[in-house]
Specification:
This protein is of the alpha/beta class. It has a single domain, classed as HUPs (Rossmann fold). Helix content is about 35%, strand content about 10%. The chain has a five-stranded parallel beta sheet, with helices on both faces. The longest helix has 16 residues, at about 95-110. The model has no long low-confidence stretch (mean pLDDT about 95).
């Protein structure tokens, strides 16, 4: 069976990627990160998702991006609410996807997995620079230049199946694959396990469910 590394955050997009990879016949290896984020409930969700969806292995990588901060997710900075951010918001974590993909790339080489799945989206998203198609294309090219597997002709693919579709379309896709979105959390500023409903991530999620004609199954404050 062909193998794939899935970047699993515990959120809506990553669980959809996992379900899609499984539907395509991949043996899935999930990777999550304890990166110094202020709220780690997403890791509990990722572990639950990995267990219920039968991944082959799930590892949590420890790195500390608080060392240099620069984000409301890793520093004591107020998370913007009610869609007030006008440019790349302070919830952007510097170089996060580049760092995450580098770890996924290393594990993929060891596993001899030639597919990595990441749930980036460039339609209904917060404007993060590392969610754009040109970034993914450049990273994939670099990955195949920088690895033994790539140099020896076994090309690695960065799969971004959600890149160019709306949040509503992502949700509909997940539902068609049997995804249980009650297992997920997307919020940047949760409290006691409940999503705030006001941060950019929550607003995009709620908009997606509304446009899909569905009710979001998670709890909000």
């Amino acid at each position: 069976m062909k193998k794939a590394v899935i970047l699993l955050s515990g959120g809506l997009d990553s669980i959809t990627c996992l379900a899609l990879a499984k539907s395509q016949g991949f043996e899935c290896y999930a990777m999550s990160f304890r990166y110094g984020q202020r709220h780690t409930i997403e890791l509990d969700k990722a572990a639950e998702i990995a267990k219920k969806m039968g991944v082959k292995d799930h590892i949590v990588v420890d790195i500390d991006l608080r060392t240099f901060g620069g984000s409301a997710l890793t520093e004591d900075i107020e998370v913007p609410k009610d869609g007030k951010a006008k440019s790349i918001p302070i919830t952007y974590v510097p170089a996060r996807n580049t760092i995450f993909l580098s770890f996924a790339l290393g594990w993929a080489e060891v596993l001899k997995a030639y597919d990595i799945f990441i749930g980036v989206n460039a339609v209904d998203y917060s404007g993060y620079p590392d969610c754009r198609p040109e970034y993914i294309e450049s990273y994939e090219k670099m990955a195949n230049l920088a690895t033994r597997e790539g140099v020896e002709g076994r090309k690695l693919k960065i799969n971004t199946p959600l890149l160019s579709i709306t949040k509503a379309e992502i949700i509909k896709l997940g539902v068609s694959l049997g995804v249980d979105y009650s297992l997920t959390i997307t919020c940047y500023d949760p409290l006691d396990g409940k999503s705030c409903g006001k941060c950019d991530s929550c607003l995009l999620r709620l908009k997606g469910f509304k446009e899909a004609g569905l009710t979001d199954p998670i709890e909000y404050q």
